[in-house]
Design goal:
Layout lengths: L17 E14 L3 E8 L2 E8 L9 E10 L14 E12 L17 H6 L1 H4 L3 H23 L3 E2 L17 E3 L7 E3 L5 H9 L4 E9 L11 E10 L3 H20 L8 E3 H8 L13 E2 L10 H4 L3 E7 L2 H4 L2 H13 L6 E10 L2 E7 L8 H11 L6 E7 L1 H16 L10 E5 L4 E4 L6 E3 L26 E6 L2 E8 L4 H10 L4 H12 L9 E7 H8 L30 H7 L9
Parallel strand pairs: 6-9, 11-17
Antiparallel strand pairs: 1-2, 1-4, 2-3, 4-5, 7-8, 9-10, 10-22, 12-13, 13-16, 14-15, 14-16, 17-20, 18-19, 20-21, 21-22
Helix pairs in contact: 3-5, 3-14, 6-11
């Protein structure tokens, strides 16, 4: 038998037993001329073994240990580890695999090692307690999600990894066809098409933990390859989908933390923008946007008089923390995000005619009337020492710029503090106009069902039409999104027409997808959320690379496998591909 126990499960209850264990040497400490202490670990924990000093093993050797479980001598108990009350004595060591010195320490000190080194030797990095813990948390999340979906009568179905290229917003990874040179498959950005076809096929409730691929720039919450819980349901409305999706998320959170979150609150997209300046609000801190447009209805201040929307945020105590250089920096940031400028006001106490009252210290204070000053202070509920930041512009710009400043100033790391889940609903069906065509652009995608209450405005006022679309947000990260789909071919043609897609183009681009809907499609909707993002937050990580076994760095070049890499010319010839020389 290779082992009778694992290191982490030993306790005082095993004292007197002879056991056999296997694992890696974590550390060796010499004790006099004849003895050495070996800390040996496996995935469950670490145990101290007392061996003859002549045993020639070093850190990261793989060994099997046979010894007797013994209580540690009084005064030598290690309360930092679960097995700190016991040790193994009378040990014999069998070397299963010798090891060269590792390129970095296999403990918490590796957190300070350059990430490219850690990723080059990822198989060593995975030995660390932090990485072991993170991957096991991920496994718990997956298991909880599967159980939650099965418990709601969802059927797990795998969809193809090779599919036609479809316009979904992000760049696709293309796979050349050997049998049809010059033609390509695409790797799925999501199983969107197939899961809707499963509803046409009468499956009623589908899910899978799906691998999706997008050729996008990598960042803390994005990888080329990512995993999402993908689900679709027939004969449902928005409430049905949100309730079903919520079960899996909350079950996963409870499986990891031991505490079940409360029911997830909901907010409309418009209210989210009005209050937080973003469609993925972080509710862990205040600094909500305050409406000030009415305060300046009759203002003489030119910067405000022509603005459609004026809003502000208050930074508690910010007047002391933000000097002129920092404030100039915030102004530059606001301009880089599209605002015409940024007005800052420091709240101070002024003495006039033997009375004290709040006033502003700012280059623009002289342009504000006493009534405007008092109204701003009242609306912002400001106190001495606070800092007020105001943007006056178009509504969208005002919201987005202040929302970004709010996050930059007040937002804690994504995994800090309590977990605040939030549903954002009633997104716009269209966002903005394509400057090349003058046509509206879809907010999510062209297959979102318009809100039934807004159908009569679809052609007359399309930009005011809401979609039956929704996002799930956690601590300011978008976990996922979904919608009720259009199942009526006539309504789908109406939406296509607004986008400038005529029947001929629709058949050419989406015919394989639209054709099945002619044969009776049920009303259906679905949702998908990122398992990587959810797991990272639950694991206390701010980068999803830390909860993925073999991720790519931000460059996209894998230091461990050296991919992407060149291939043999014969392979390219077989695929009918010719690589053009790069311009110097």
């Amino acid at each position: 038998m290779m082992r009778t126990h694992t290191y982490g499960e030993l306790s005082a209850a095993n004292i007197g037993q002879q056991v056999r264990l296997a694992g890696w040497v974590n550390r060796r400490r010499e004790h006099g001329e004849h003895l050495a202490f070996l800390d040996i670990r496996d995935h469950t924990g670490l145990t101290q073994c007392v061996v003859d000093n002549s045993v020639d093993v070093r850190a990261e050797f793989v060994v099997a240990v046979t010894g007797t479980v013994t209580a540690r001598v009084e005064g030598t108990v290690n309360t930092d580890i679960s097995t700190g009350e016991i040790e193994l004595q009378d040990c014999t060591i069998e070397i299963l695999s010798a090891a060269e010195p590792p390129p970095f320490p296999i403990d918490e000190r590796a957190d300070k090692v350059d990430e490219m080194v850690r990723l080059k030797y990822r198989y060593l990095d995975l030995r660390r307690e932090r990485m072991q813990r993170n991957l096991r948390i991920r496994s718990k999340v997956n298991a909880a999600i599967r159980a939650a979906m099965a418990g709601q009568d969802f059927v797990e179905v795998e969809t193809p990894m090779l599919m036609p290229s479809t316009p979904e917003g992000a760049r696709e990874f293309l796979v050349p066809s050997r049998q049809k040179p010059g033609s390509f498959y695409a790797l799925p950005q999501s199983p969107q098409l197939f899961k809707q076809l499963l509803m046409v096929g009468g499956l009623d409730r589908y899910y899978q933990i799906a691998r999706c691929l997008r050729d996008e720039d990598l960042r803390a919450d994005r990888q080329y390859e990512f995993m999402q819980l993908d689900m679709e349901m027939s004969f449902v409305e928005v409430d049905d989908v949100l309730s079903a999706a919520e079960v899996g998320v909350l079950d996963a959170a409870e499986a990891v933390t031991g505490v079940r979150p409360n029911e997830v609150p909901r907010i409309t997209w418009h209210d989210a923008m009005e209050r937080f300046g973003t469609d993925k609000p972080d509710l862990r801190f205040g600094m909500e946007l305050i409406e000030l447009t009415g305060v300046f209805a009759n203002t003489g201040f030119k910067a405000f008089s022509s603005a459609n929307s004026i809003k502000g945020i208050k930074v508690d105590g910010g007047a002391l923390r933000y000097g002129r250089n920092k404030l100039d920096g915030l102004t530059d940031e606001a301009k880089s995000m599209g605002a015409k400028g940024l007005v800052w006001l420091k709240v101070v106490t002024s003495e006039e005619e033997n009375s004290q009252k709040l006033a502003f210290q700012s280059p623009v204070a002289k342009f504000l009337s006493e009534d405007e000053t008092a109204a701003i202070i009242s609306a912002m509920q400001a106190s001495e020492g606070d800092l007020i930041l105001i943007v006056a512009d178009e509504w969208t710009t005002t919201c987005e710029v202040l929302g970004e400043l709010r996050n930059r100033i007040g937002r804690p790391p994504v995994h800090d503090g309590p977990y605040h889940y939030l549903w954002v609903v009633d997104f716009p069906l269209f966002v903005g106009v394509d400057p090349a065509t003058g046509r509206p652009r879809p907010g999510h995608h062209a297959f979102c069902h318009p809100h039934p209450e807004d159908l009569d405005k679809l052609e007359s006022d399309p930009m005011s039409v809401r979609a039956w679309a929704y996002d799930l947000v956690l601590n300011g990260w978008e976990l996922g999104s979904g919608s009720i789909r259009i199942h009526d071919p006539v309504l789908q043609r109406r939406v296509f027409s607004l986008l400038g897609i005529d029947d001929e183009e629709a058949d050419r681009r989406f015919g394989f997808f639209l054709e099945p809907f002619k044969f009776g499609a049920p009303p259906h909707g679905g949702f998908a959320y990122g398992i990587d993002r959810l797991t990272a937050i639950l694991a206390g990580e701010s980068n999803i690379r830390e909860i993925i076994a073999f991720p790519k760095p931000s460059s996209g070049i894998d230091p461990m496998t050296s991919s992407p890499s060149e291939v043999e010319a014969s392979q390219l010839d077989e695929l009918g591909i010719r690589v053009l020389p790069q311009a110097e």
